[in-house]
User: Which sequence fits this backbone?
């Protein structure tokens, strides 16, 4: 009896999945395509050759040498030379360049006279990521300009090069970036954004699948097939999708870790096994949303809203400790937050599993979360009301 | 055309779901996003110091690091292993290790070394640690350098000073940078979702009413397309002012453009978006599917317009894809106007391209109406006569019944 119910409901779920091109599109094609698009867009990894300009009012030997050195930097590319500040500003406003280096009049003269001339660099931070790259290039060149003079001055009093070096750079910083020493933006951003994208699809498709039953009024028949048990009804309907999403998730992980060489310092099976947990947790989140708001439109809206906002409030770009104290905890409502923490702990930093234990508990807990509220969904399914 | 406009207006006003997209969404989303990012910058990233030198110089460095706005020293650990344990427990996000011979090297005229190990899960934390370390060491180095050469070049100050001037987004905050890109996108997405939903409703009505829509008016292809676009334009006047003009005021984002400039810029943008919506709707035939098949594209569009990854670093292919989207041009022009105070004349290239998009999308929208939408209605009418149950049956089959 139970076996027959299970078989019938599973068949119903699978048949729906196959009959609607929408499901195949939204479970398989679009997630793969979109995740590939994100990785492909960022595939160059680090920002280089930011288009910048130079305003050289000095036109001296020193200023030309500065420009020459600047053009050797990989961070910036000198696209234009301007005769005045106003011209450079105009180019920034038109979006042709993202910043410019300004060498004042009589720079060389004042430098030689020891009057501490100023080199300025104007960076358009409206474009955020290229801004910090320009800063790096411009700052280094300005500091080096002073260093060159110190070197010459010290050499004239007879110091050897190895004695001069500590004066130029008395303290050497060695930055170590464990996991991502290349500062690869693709590895950093897409380690969180790509799984988050997949989560968005899972949330939306799940809400859509259950919502369609309610909308079309077929939910009564759906419940009957499952022998009146809403838990069986929900999970037999979703199980075929779970399987499909998990396989797609693995394909995305394959794209990330094998094709694009994202850092994977833990054993691969750790991430492989975390994927079905992420899928199940997201599906449960969507079920819960529909339990709380048992209405097609409301349910899908809630899922979409949270799915879209989780890109922001889960702390992938602005760290959560820097957000408002009432925004940061919202991130912990989403399954993707725990997957993100697991992936940084495991794939990036290769910490012992011990440190990720709570994240796994949380992911599994999501799966049980809708149970107390599932009665609401059952009532709605037994007597659906469609609100357009 | 006016009849279409009036009828469409009535349809929108009667449709709660569409009203949510057209009016509520543009008011809520910008506020939510802005609130999340409104702290703008990361401050006081927790770090620990492993001080093997235990000298005056190393304590000076620690003190100076703690004084920077970027990081805060939450502890001094005896060994790297202890520090790593704290990092694993997420009590800190970077370890600064000061070498044993840090002070002795400095005293004997050699280079002193220190190392930083930074958690790379969130780039902003790394940026802060790097910034703090660079600023502290350069300040200390500058003092030593000046002291060394002072007797030679008769100068007690620095040699070359440098002046870092952030323009556009003067606070260098993340919200002021990203949000201005997202705001026009909110308008584009909400409008297209609303149009898709309206159309999905119309198709469902036709499916249930034997291919006829009692709520629509008959008109030629061109008046229908134009009338609808005009209707959406009029409805969007208010949301546009709110999203593009009021939101930056509320959250203190850069606001150098005046409201008329913004509106002049929005005109070709909204028109092309309304036409784009009428192209996309040709491929959607249910109310709620709109949601499913279109919402996720927002994430792609954010990337395509260059908000988080600059467009000049993308391959030609992705740049070309981005070029086709009205929001790409709108976002960039809007950012230049709001942040950098560009005039309409300075973004005339963006505006011209959006007008070209209007023309292309208009032709395509007419084609969709003529070749896809109307034949579909005719097919429904035909089916309704020859086989009355077939439209309903089609729906049941899709839902796994029959």
Assistant:
């Amino acid at each position: 009896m139970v076996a027959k119910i299970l078989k019938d409901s599973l068949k119903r779920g699978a048949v729906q999945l196959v009959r609607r091109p929408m499901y195949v599109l939204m479970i398989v094609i679009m997630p793969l395509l979109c995740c590939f698009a994100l990785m492909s867009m960022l595939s160059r990894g680090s920002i280089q050759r930011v288009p910048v300009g130079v305003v050289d009012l000095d036109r001296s030997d020193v200023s030309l040498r500065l420009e020459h050195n600047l053009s050797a930097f990989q961070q910036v590319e000198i696209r234009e030379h301007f005769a005045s500040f106003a011209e450079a500003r105009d180019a920034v406003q038109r979006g042709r360049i993202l910043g410019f280096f300004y060498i004042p009049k009589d720079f060389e003269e004042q430098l030689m006279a020891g009057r501490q001339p100023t080199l300025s660099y104007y960076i358009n931070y409206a474009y955020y990521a290229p801004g910090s790259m320009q800063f790096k290039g411009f700052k280094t060149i300005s500091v080096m300009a002073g260093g060159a003079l110190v070197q010459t001055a010290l050499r004239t009093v007879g110091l050897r090069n190895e004695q001069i070096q500590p004066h130029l750079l008395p303290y050497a910083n060695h930055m170590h970036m464990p996991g991502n020493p290349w500062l690869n933006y693709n590895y950093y951003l897409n380690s969180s954004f790509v799984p988050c994208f997949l989560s968005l699809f899972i949330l939306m498709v799940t809400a859509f699948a259950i919502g369609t039953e309610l909308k079309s009024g077929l939910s009564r028949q759906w419940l009957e097939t499952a022998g009146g048990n809403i838990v069986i009804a929900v999970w037999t309907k979703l199980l075929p999708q779970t399987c499909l999403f998990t396989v797609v998730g693995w394909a995305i992980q394959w794209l990330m870790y094998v094709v694009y060489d994202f850092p994977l310092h833990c054993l691969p099976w750790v991430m492989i096994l975390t994927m079905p947990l992420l899928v199940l947790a997201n599906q449960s989140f969507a079920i819960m949303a529909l339990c709380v708001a048992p209405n097609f439109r409301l349910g899908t809206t809630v899922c979409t809203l949270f799915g879209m906002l989780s890109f922001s409030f889960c702390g992938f770009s602005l760290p959560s400790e820097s957000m408002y104290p009432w925004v940061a905890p919202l991130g912990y409502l989403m399954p993707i937050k725990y997957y993100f923490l697991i992936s940084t702990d495991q794939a990036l930093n290769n910490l012992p599993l011990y440190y990720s234990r709570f994240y796994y508990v949380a992911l599994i807990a999501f799966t049980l979360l809708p149970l107390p509220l599932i009665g609401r969904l059952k009532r709605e399914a037994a007597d659906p009301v469609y609100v357009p | 055309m006016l009849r279409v406009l009036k009828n469409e207006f009535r349809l929108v006003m009667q449709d709660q779901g569409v009203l949510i997209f057209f009016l509520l969404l543009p008011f809520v989303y910008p506020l939510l996003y802005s609130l999340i990012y409104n702290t703008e910058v990361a401050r006081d990233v927790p770090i620990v110091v492993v001080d093997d030198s235990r000298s005056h110089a190393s304590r000076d460095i620690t003190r100076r690091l703690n004084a920077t706005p970027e990081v805060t020293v939450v502890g001094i650990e005896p060994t790297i292993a202890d520090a790593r344990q704290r990092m694993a427990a997420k009590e800190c996000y970077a370890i600064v290790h000061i070498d044993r011979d840090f002070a002795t090297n400095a005293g004997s005229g050699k280079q002193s070394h220190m190392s930083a190990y930074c958690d790379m899960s969130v780039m902003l934390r790394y940026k802060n640690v790097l910034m703090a370390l660079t600023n502290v060491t350069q300040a200390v180095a500058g003092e030593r350098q000046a002291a060394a050469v002072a007797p030679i070049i008769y100068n007690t100050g620095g040699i070359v000073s440098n002046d870092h001037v952030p323009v556009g987004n003067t606070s260098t905050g993340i919200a002021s940078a990203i949000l201005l890109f997202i705001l026009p996108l909110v308008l584009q997405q909400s409008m297209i979702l609303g149009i898709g939903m309206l159309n999905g409703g119309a198709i469902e009505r036709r499916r249930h009413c034997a291919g006829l829509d009692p709520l629509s008016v008959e008109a030629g292809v061109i008046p229908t397309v134009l009338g609808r676009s005009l209707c959406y334009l009029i409805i969007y006047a208010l949301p546009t002012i709110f999203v593009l003009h009021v939101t930056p005021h509320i959250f203190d984002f850069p606001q150098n453009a005046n409201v008329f400039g913004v509106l002049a810029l929005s005109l070709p943008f909204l028109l092309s978006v309304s036409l784009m919506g009428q192209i996309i709707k040709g491929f959607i035939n249910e109310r709620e599917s709109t949601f499913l098949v279109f919402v996720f594209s927002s994430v792609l569009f954010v990337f395509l317009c260059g908000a988080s990854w600059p467009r000049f670093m993308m391959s030609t292919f992705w740049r070309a894809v981005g070029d086709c989207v009205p929001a790409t041009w709108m976002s960039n022009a809007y950012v230049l106007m709001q942040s950098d105070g560009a005039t309409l004349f300075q973004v005339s290239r963006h505006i011209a391209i959006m007008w070209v998009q209007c023309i292309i999308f208009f032709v395509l929208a007419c084609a969709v109406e003529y070749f896809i939408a109307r034949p579909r209605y005719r097919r429904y009418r035909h089916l309704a006569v020859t086989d009355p149950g077939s439209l309903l049956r089609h729906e049941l089959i899709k839902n796994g019944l029959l």
User: Anything to note?
Assistant: Chain A has 16 helices and five strands. Chain A has two domains: 2-43+182-382, 50-168. The mean pLDDT of chain A is 89.
